[in-house]
Amino acid sequence: MSLTSKLLSWARRKSPWIIHFNSGACNACDIEIVAALTPRYDVERFGIIIRGTPRHADVLVCSGPVTRQIKDRIIRIYEQMAEPKFVVAVGTCACSGGVFQGCYNVEGGIDTVVPVSAYVPGCPARPEAIIDGVVKLLSTLEEGKPPAKPLVIHDDPANDDDMEEAANG
Amino acid sequence: MADEQKLAQALEAKFPVLAGKINLVRPRRMFVEVPAESFRQVLAHLKKEQGFVYCCTITGTDDKDTLAALYHLSDEAGTLLNLRLRVPRDAPVIGTVTDLYPCCANYERELIDLLGFTVENLPPGNRYPMPDDFPRDQHPLRKDWQPAAK
Amino acid sequence: MGTVTIPIGPQHPALKEPAAFSITLVGERILKSDVRLGYNHRGIEKACEQRTYTQDLYLIERICGICSHAHTTTFITASEEVAGLKVPPRGLYIRTLISELERIHSHLLWLGVAGHEIGFDTLLMYSWRDREVVMDILAMLTGNRVNYGINTFGGVRRDFTAEQLAEVRKSMDVLEERTKYYIEVATSEPTLAKRLGGVGSLSHDDALRLGAVGPTARASNIQRDVRRDDTHLVYNELDFKVITDDHCDVFGRTVVRVLELMESYKLIRQIIDKMPDGPVSVKAPRRVPAGEAVARYEAPRGEDIHYVKGNGTDKPERVKVRAPTMANLAAVSKMLEDNNLADVPIVVAAIDPCFSCTDRGIQVSDLGRGRDETLAWGALRAHGIEWWRREAGVDFASLNRKLSQSLAAR
Fold first, then answer.
1. Is residue B149 part of a domain?
2. Interface test with B, best of A104, A106, A112 (most B CBs within 10 A)
3. Looking at this predicted complex, what is its ipTM?
4. CA B121, B127, B130 angle in degrees (round to 5)?
């Protein structure tokens, strides 16, 4: 069974709920996350639904470098999520602070405040890479266990058959 | 450049203190250095009599012994008149312009937080852009500012 | 008598950006509102002083992913003025082409977000599907869907072939056809006019007094467009209309953006027709002389203004950025006055706020019921959609179905 069909059957049973949070990003990753919902990429066919509240979410999809003002809020959102919970850092800024490393109001990547389960680099991360990141993370959770070490997604779809499949259904 | 030259002449006629302080850089770009004591009158005149109804933003600069606030004023014809007010670094006090240009409130708050200006008569409001727990005596855009060690 | 404070934010799913709004209510009516910004403040201006002009291009591009080209173009135009550089005409034409493509993607993005705010989700799905046509064009021309990196100090980094430009022209035909359909829906669908008419009103005089810019100002009949007033790039060689509307409300802001899309398609065809041959950049000096310049640009949201000061080194002395949303925020408080809580999402969305640009949650105070409440934006949107259905019979469910069917057939 391919990765996506394994996930599809899992998703039909579990229907993971995602919450999206911008921790100080420029919006480029955010609009690519939203694009993932639209007909061309259609993440909902994986049974993935985006919710507005942390309390029912399984996965926190986070973009942006962590600014000083937003730090406490990310922590609060993470704490409101019920276990098991996972964090996907979307975009180079979320992974490491990106171009904003060293800026006076920026702490760094998301993993400076909460544990990250999957890193999706890119500036911005492409919708295919974002979906791939969420799909790969969720497939490791079939057993209900988080990945042994955090996943890192390559952002070149040409190198990844699963991502091609994700993009073309 | 006819309009900008006419405007420069009119300003020097009305405010002799501006003689030699008006720089016509190119079409639609003027820089005017205004002494602090004439700032209010010049600004009000520009807005009410010369059609500079719009203040795009205020740029604060740290120029070693002085700080400066550069008001970017625009008229409806697209001319940008950049009015510079210079104050001593150890007493950077300016008056609010929000009575003339209401949208300047946050631009003035930025001068306070990032460069350490004091803005008199600024109406109360939320701090911008730094968070409430950022020390009030720290001004990141000052040339000598170093972030605290993490 | 206490207050109902409904802090919404700084995380609102609709806008995907953090900000914190504070609203004072009596019953459903808004008395006043306030915005707390700063959540996206990253310290970019300071960082610019510590990097070279070319490095700053990559930093400034990431002020905002939606209008990244606007910011780099404005910054580099000011820098080129300080350095005394003259970008060759073909380079300027290429910059202008990307500018108008960016305007199209941004307005289509906005159309979808606005639809989502009022429960008209089919509009989101279809306008973002159409937007993918532009994303593909931008990726073909520049190598990236978002954050195009086309500008360099002295011009642009890439040239375009005749074949690529022919592709761009073809896609303008496709988009123009689809946008005509949206115009038809916008002007003939009573549900949309009912939902958006009279909402978020901002009189001509208030818009002027509060310094509004862009489509927000033009929807209050202010003739203000930097492309014409403080002309930049090659706009003085192109023929286009400044679109204004006198509704002074959210409906007007929708009309302005949709008609601006049509102008952009026309502009792009002209740009392709008139594009001169020649080099696309000049060599830039490593050190930029002492001097200062201010550049202005009509970004999709309105006037973007950058100030650059050189000091004879390879790094700028000072860079100041004021993005358009910042100029429109004072107007938002005025627009919300005397509106309903149910209208907060669409009124805020109607200025097309880019809190990254401005940098950037909603607190609502109800003086009647005397309590403070925390409302997530999603809950506020749901409240708005439900309130309008209940009180005014505005329900997009059937329009969603009808549009799905007819658009699927196209």
1. no
2. A104
3. 0.96
4. 135
**DSSP alpha helix (H) spans, A36-154:** 71-80, 92-96, 127-140
Cβ contact C382:C104 at 8 Å: no
Contact B126 C224 (CB under 8 A): no
Strand partners, C23: C364
Contact residues, chain A, for B113 at CB < 8 Å: none
SS3 C104: helix
Q: How far is the C-alpha of C243 from the C-alpha of C262, rounded, in Å?
A: 10
Dihedral over Cα of B30, B31, B34, B39: its sign: positive
Neighbours of B50 (CB within 10 A): 17
Which tens digits make up the pLDDT trace of C388-398? 999 989 988 88
Number of C-beta neighbours around residue A39 at 10 A: 11
Number of structural domains in chain B: 1
Triad B119, B121, B126: Cα angle to 5°: 75
pTM (2 d.p.): 0.89
Can you tell me the distance from the alpha carbon of C226 to that of C297, in angstroms, rounded to the nearest whole number?
A: 6
Sheet holding B66-74, edge to edge: B22-26, B29-34, B80-88, B66-74, B54-63
Which two three-digit tokens encode residue C6? Answer: 């409904």
Q: Using one digit for the tens of pLDDT, what is the confidence trace for C296-321? A: 999 999 999 999 999 999 999 999 99
Domain boundaries, chain C: 40-359+376-408
Determine the length of chain B: 150
Q: Please give the CATH topology (third level) of the domain spanning C40-359+376-408.
A: Cytochrome-c3 Hydrogenase; chain B (1.10.645)
CA distance B116 to A5: 59
Residue B88 included in any domain: yes
How close does chain A come to B146, measured CA to CA in Å?
A: 9
